[in-house]
Amino acid sequence: MSDTILLTCGDPSGIGPEIAAKAWASGARFVWIGDPRHLPPGTSWRTVAEGEAPGEGPLAVLVQDFAAPASPGRPDPANAPGVVAAIDRAVRLVRAGKAAAICTGPINKKALKDGAGFAFPGHTEYLAHLAGVDRVVMMLACPGLRVVPATIHIPLSEVPAALTEELLEATIRITHAGLVRDFGLAAPRIAVAGLNPHAGEGGAMGWEEERMIRPLIRRLANEGMAISGPWPADTLFHAAARARHDVAVCAYHDQALIPIKTIDFAGGVNVTLGLPFVRTSPDHGTAYDIAGQGRADPSSLIAALRMARDMAAARRA
């Protein structure tokens, strides 16, 4: 199997092409799938074929034709089919063994919906669809912390009803399997955060912990899983607490993302667990406000490319 990492272009009107060029200049090696017209002016690039290694020299590009040039900061719905086609192509290649992993550039869901009828909430759900997988898990990772939100892009008022035992158990099991397979952890230590302040404080601040979360954790621990909780979220992320777990499974989006973005805003990586292939992404969006200005920080993309390579190696091993 190839050890090539594929990097999809994402929205060409965002910072994706700029950070790809900067990541290559930093020494990261990958094959970029996109339209060379969208790269920053003066970028040196060369064409490679499907399955070809990136090698050295100019940026390795697997050319994907787009309908139009890109205007920084102004997404063009005409380019939406090209963005989707680049993702489709990457998945086809990685599933055919012509690449080891996929790293995806940031997309704009509204532009994709307007220009390509994109009917998915985001990358994660679309990749699960392409892979034929019913359920995947979003994990955010940096050197000091890994977090998984059990519920993601829903209003906070809907979280208590959405956080079912079935969902939480599936999230924990997919997380456990992913850490074993893709991160080489034989017995990952999983900490589960409570939903309510003080993890419910014995029912004084909510009953979800006592009625559902704690019994589930007890059952999984009895199966041999190294799992603990429910822990109060406000004491789960200081340095000493982080040293006691390999991942924190959280109840909702901000409970997970605030600590990791506080600890390492520029270097966080978005990982999709539960896919039949490795997928990572920088933990930021298209940043239209700075696109085309040469100011974009490639740190998160570089970390995502490095993590994709390490995960692919762990999966092969």
TrEMBL record:
Pathway(s) per entry: Cofactor biosynthesis; pyridoxine 5'-phosphate biosynthesis; pyridoxine 5'-phosphate from D-erythrose 4-phosphate: step 4/5
Subcellular location: Cytoplasm
List of residues binding substrate: H123, T124, K261, N270, R279
Enzyme Commission numbers on file: 1.1.1.262
Uppermost EC category: oxidoreductase
Major localization listed first in the record, in broad terms: cytoplasm
Task of the protein: Catalyzes the NAD(P)-dependent oxidation of 4-(phosphooxy)-L-threonine (HTP) into 2-amino-3-oxo-4-(phosphooxy)butyric acid which spontaneously decarboxylates to form 3-amino-2-oxopropyl phosphate (AHAP).
Subunit structure comment from the entry: Homodimer.
The protein's required cofactors: Zn(2+); Mg(2+); Co(2+)
Residues annotated as signal peptide: none
Name the UniProt record assigns to this protein: 4-hydroxythreonine-4-phosphate dehydrogenase
Single GO molecular function: 4-hydroxythreonine-4-phosphate dehydrogenase activity
Annotated NCBIfam families: pdxA, PRK05312.1
Catalytic activities: 4-(phosphooxy)-L-threonine + NAD(+) = 3-amino-2-oxopropyl phosphate + CO2 + NADH
Binding site for a divalent metal cation: H153, H198, H253
Annotated family: Belongs to the PdxA family.
Gene name linked to the record: pdxA
Miscellaneous field: The active site is located at the dimer interface.
Note on cofactor: Binds 1 divalent metal cation per subunit. Can use ions such as Zn(2+), Mg(2+) or Co(2+).
Origin: domain of life: Bacteria
InterPro entries: PdxA (IPR037510), PdxA_fam (IPR005255)
Residue ranges the record marks as coiled coil: none
Keywords on record: Cobalt, Cytoplasm, Magnesium, Metal-binding, NAD, NADP, Oxidoreductase, Pyridoxine biosynthesis, Zinc
